[in-house]
C-alpha cells in the first residue's frame, strides 16, 4: 500500500513540481530549445521549473507558428522560426538539442561555435568520429557539452554501481540490459524508423542498453560476439539483440526493441526495462533502470538470500519526485557554473558508447547511420 501511495505522490509531484524562486545572487542559466520536440517537456521544461538557477527562455522550430504554439503551451518567452537565429541570440547561455539523431552533430557544432553550452540528446551523434569532434570543439571553446544519458544521474543507478564496486558480490561475470516497448507505441513515421535521420532501435533504446552494460561492467567491450536484428524497413532495426565479450571474461547481452509484436496479435507485451548483473557470489536485478523515479527495485540475491533496495534520493541531494532529467539538470547547471557535480557522462564515455554502437552495426553488416554532410567552417 505504502509503495502505491509513494508512486502516486512521486508521479503527481513530478508533473506539478513546486516552482523554485530564482536565487538572489545567481544569474539563471537561459536555455534555448532546438525544435518543438516531444521529449523537451519531460527532459527540460518541467525539470527547470523546480531549479532556482535555470530557465527555458526560447524555442525554435522550422515552422515559427509551431514554435509559437509550443512556447504558449509551455510559457516560453521567445520564439524563433529557425534554429540558427536562436543559437545566435546573445541572451541564450545553453542549447538543448533534441533534434533527430542525424542532426545532433550539425546543430551541436553550430551551437558550440556560437559559444553556447549544449545539453545534447542521446545518442550523441551518428558516429564516434562526429562525437569526438563535438567534444573537441567544446574543449577548445571551454564549453560544457553533455550527452543526456539522464538515467546515469539517478541515485538508484548509483546504488547499483556502489553494490557492484563494494565487492560484496565478487567480480561481474555477465550482464543483460534490456529496453523494449510494445508494438504500436511508436508510429511508423517516427524519426526512429528513418535511416537518413539516424534511426534504428540500437541508436534509440539500444544506446542506453550499451551505456548501462559498460557502466555496470566497468569496462568496454572488446568484441561483438553475435548480432540479430529484426528490421522495420531497409537498414533500420526495429529490434537488436547483441552479445559482447568484455575484459575479465565478462559476457554481456543487450536487447532493444521499438515495438515487440503483440501475442496472437491481441495482447501487448509488457515493456522490459531491466538490467541484470550476475557476479561471482550473487546477482542484482534492477527493475526499471531508465525511469526509476516512478518505480524501481534493486533485488540483490546471494545463494538463498534476497534483499530489495530502492533509492530515490542521495543523502545530500534530491527529492523522491526528482526525475532522472531533474538530477541531470542539477549536474548540468553545476558544471556550467563551475561547481562539483554528483555525476557526469564524460567525453570518453560518449565516444566509447558510439564506438560500441557502430561495432554492432558493422558486425551485422547493416552499417553505421549516415555521416553528417555538415562541414564546420574552418574558423570555429
Ligand atoms: N532522453 C530521453 O529520455 C529521450 C531522448 N530522446 C531523443 O531526443 C531526440 C528527439 O526525440 P523526440 O522528441 O521523440 O522526437 P520528435 O520527433 O518529437 O522531435 C524531433 C524534433 O526535431 C525537429 N526536426 C528537425 N528536422 C527534422 C526532420 N527532418 N524530421 C523530423 N524532425 C525534425 C522537429 O522540430 P521542429 O519542431 O522544428 O519541426 C522535432 O520537433 C532524439 O535524439 C531521441 O533519441 C527521445 C525521447 C526520450
Ligand atoms: O530516450 C528514450 O527513452 C524513452 C523511449 O521511449 C524513447 O524511445 C527513447 O528515445
UniProtKB/TrEMBL annotation:
Keyword Oxidoreductase: yes
Residues annotated as domain GFO/IDH/MocA-like oxidoreductase: 158-284
Record GO terms (molecular function): D-xylose 1-dehydrogenase (NADP+) activity; nucleotide binding
The keyword Protease belongs to this UniProt entry's keyword annotation: no
Catalytic activity: D-xylose + NADP(+) = D-xylono-1,5-lactone + NADPH + H(+)
Entries under InterPro entries matching the protein: Gfo/Idh/MocA-like_OxRdtase_N, Gfo/Idh/MocA_domain, GFO_IDH_MocA-like_dom, NAD(P)-bd_dom_sf
Occurrences of domain Gfo/Idh/MocA-like oxidoreductase N-terminal (ranges): 29-146
Keywords of the record: Oxidoreductase
Entry's EC annotation: 1.1.1.179
Pfam families linked: GFO_IDH_MocA, GFO_IDH_MocA_C3
Family to which the UniProt record says this protein belongs: Belongs to the Gfo/Idh/MocA family.
Protein name per its UniProtKB record: D-xylose 1-dehydrogenase (NADP(+), D-xylono-1,5-lactone-forming)
Species this protein is from: Mycena alexandri
